[in-house]
Amino acid sequence: MIRRLLGLAPIDHGQIAAGVPRNPKWASWVKRFVRGKRCIVCGRNDEPLTGHHVVPFHEDPSRELDEENVRPVCDDSPTRKCHLLVCHLGDWRLTNPDCDRHAAMLLASRMAAVGQRNR
Questions:
Q1: pLDDT tens digits for 19-34?
Q2: What is the C-alpha to C-alpha distance for residues 41 and 108, in angstroms, rounded to an integer?
Q3: I need a labelling partner for 68 at 20 to 30 A (CA). Which of 31, 34, 57, 78 fits?
Q4: pTM for this one?
Q5: What is the C-alpha separation between 100 and 90, in angstroms, rounded?
Q6: Long-range contacts of 111-117, Cβ-Cβ distance < 8 Å, separation of 24 or more
Q7: What share of the chain is helix, strand, coil (3-state, %, to 5)?
């Protein structure tokens, strides 16, 4: 528990969100979905990725496995917290309705910074 609070262990989001059970295909589906993709926030693909639902699946379970509704983001690890911080505003109970826009701004900023360092 202390490791989770300190951000040293991934958070298990479980099989239920807001009382709605996850589709049993989710775990295998999201692994295939993120394969070969980059995080929409930081652009990295060397961290474990997961999927973020634009429309939370507990609000519309029919869109849980809809590629148009899922974005690849860094899963929670000690070094990357893109999913939690940008898409959930630091609180798993929240959803950032502007996640795509904020992610694009952060990615552009990161790419510009990397470009500056490589000059």
A1: 788 899 999 999 999 9
A2: 9
A3: 78
A4: 0.80
A5: 16
A6: 111/43
A7: 35, 10, 50
